[in-house]
Amino acid sequence: MDLIFSSVEKNLVSKLWVSLTVNYIFCDVFSLYDSVFLNELLNGNVGGIEFTESFLLGFSVIMEIPMLMIIITMILNNKAFRIINISVSILMIIVQIVSLATGTNSKHYIFFSIIEIGILLLIIYLVSKYRYEEKTTGNNHKK
Prior knowledge:
The chain is mainly alpha-helical. It is built from 5 helices and 4 strands. The protein has helices at 7-31, 35-42, 53-75, 78-101, 107-128, and strands spanning 2-4, 45-46, 49-50, 131-133. The strands form 2 sheets. Strands 1-4 form a two-stranded antiparallel ribbon. Helix 3 runs antiparallel to helix 4 and helix 4 (78-101) packs antiparallel against helix 5. The longest helix is centred in the N-terminal third of the chain and has 25 residues, at 7-31. 15% of the residues are buried.
């Protein structure tokens, strides 16, 4: 028996990764309208976190992951599709929870975080609802 995901299911999960990425972007853009946050950002230290080049590179790598998932989701084989989507979703949930636990968070940040965690949980739920299908040979005999 093989794990089967249709192109429709893969397309939906890919679109959820797009939605997640857009939420990340808009949360960061809206943060720039917070004068306290913006002043801290301009001084290179937000809530006790120093925004060094190394920090920004690490943060960039973490934020690249969901963007890569948009494409990767469409090209993975069925087994890898399930494993990687669940693993990356769990990783991103952990990242989001850690970011919520660090410093003081604005109301919009908490709102976006709830949406982002919800999208990640939905991805986990959808890819966990796999189904198995019997593979058959050309003469319809089951393997």
